[in-house]
Specification:
The chain has 341 residues and is α/β, with parallel strands linked by helices. The chain folds into two domains: 175 residues, Alpha-Beta Complex (Quinone Oxidoreductase, Chain A, domain 1); 137 residues, 3-Layer(aba) Sandwich (Rossmann fold), CATH 3.40.50. The protein has eleven helices and 18 strands. The strands form four sheets. Strands 3, 5, 6, 9, 10, 17 and 18 form a seven-stranded mixed sheet that branches. A six-stranded parallel sheet has the order 13-12-11-14-15-16, with helices on both faces. A three-stranded antiparallel sheet has the order 2-1-4, with no helix packed on it.
């Protein structure tokens, strides 16, 4: 089969590799679409440890079942599936209490195990969620992001009807955060970006107000929109030091920060005095549980979360590197980037 194989930092080769065969208790899936994630880019650039090289990256796929290993039931060739990329043992303390996202022995497809920038991939049946014919593979491969965003907002006690919500960063995840905040009844939902076209898209997807960070001071603009010294909930969706630091200043006293964006390095100058003085609650978010992943496919099926407007670029498998580099080098031009196998 063809695959985009990472051999070293900055070295991905599109090449022929052996097609895997499913063992007992496994499924062979023909990968159709994979969303490019910043985690893939960071591993490609050597900024995130964990990949055991050589490795096929890619961890947000959708495809169709082509072959079943022994003792697999509930699936048949031709079933269309979204794929949960988390690898977990099912036996450790966290798995036993339903938090498989924190598995002590787990990992991630495309990092500890080969991923989906390939024509085929092996998965276990419990990580495959059937999807209907009306849901395209290009949309279904966003189920991972939708699941993690859903988990992040379920954590926040203040994110409810009438809450003011500020979203820092309007990438794919930020656009999905915008939609979930509106579903929760938040008002106003305020999006912040330096890209005018992303601000316009956020308005189309439900934002009540947007702030162009190139033209306005975000803190000053926010003071005019919220009466209590900041937003009830700030969702940091960019994962860069400047917005992570900024979130502490933009949330109101007694408010909440959802630290959704992740970066490969530590952040200096976090003002912990503000955390004390404003009595803030800060939520970290790591992926999702299996049940939340299943729920994410339902949001996509009924189109309560819209993905098509977010997809800006599609690349064939042989151009995986181009997709990764567009995501990194020209973030203002690309949004949802999909690799079609």
């Amino acid at each position: 089969m063809k695959a985009a194989v990472m051999h070293d930092v900055n070295d991905i080769v599109f090449e022929e590799v052996p097609k895997p065969s499913p063992k007992k208790g496994e499924l062979l899936v023909r990968i159709r679409s994979t969303r490019v994630c910043s985690t893939d880019v960071n591993m490609y650039r050597g900024r995130m440890p964990g990949a055991f090289l050589p490795r096929i990256l890619g961890h947000e796929p959708a495809g169709e079942v082509v072959e079943l290993g022994q003792e697999v039931s509930g699936f048949k060739p031709g079933d269309r599936v979204a794929i949960d990329p988390l690898v977990y043992c099912g036996k450790c303390y966290f798995c036993r209490i339903g938090m498989n996202n924190l598995c002590e022995n787990g990992g991630l497809m495309g990092r500890e195990a080969n991923g989906s920038f390939a024509e085929y991939a092996i998965i276990t049946p419990e990580r495959a969620v059937k999807i209907s014919d009306r849901l395209s593979f290009d949309v279904a491969c966003f189920a991972e992001t939708v699941g993690s965003v859903y988990r992040s907002q379920c954590k926040a006690r203040l994110l409810r009807s009438g809450a003011s919500v500020l979203i820092l960063g309007l990438g794919s995840a930020g656009m999905i955060q915008t939609q979930f905040a509106k579903l929760a009844g938040a008002n106003p939902v305020i999006g912040v970006s330096r890209s005018r076209w992303k601000l316009d898209l956020a308005l189309q997807l439900g934002a009540d107000v947007v702030i162009d960070a190139n033209k306005e001071d975000t803190a000053e603009a926010l003071r005019k929109l919220t009466p209590h010294g900041g937003a009830d909930v700030v969702i940091e969706a960019a994962g860069v030091p400047a917005t992570i630091q900024q979130s502490y200043h933009l949330v109101r006293p007694g408010g909440e920060i959802i630290q959704y964006g992740i970066g490969p390095s530590s952040v200096d100058n976090i003002n912990t005095y503000l955390q004390y003085y404003k009595e803030l609650t800060i939520y970290g978010v790591r992926a999702f549980t299996y049940s939340e992943f299943c729920i994410s496919t339902k949001f996509l099926e009924d189109q309560s979360i819209k993905i098509e407007p977010i997809i800006t670029h599609k690349f064939p498998l042989k151009q995986t590197v181009e997709g990764l580099e567009l995501s990194e080098k020209q973030p203002g031009k690309g949004l949802g980037i999909v690799i079609n196998s």
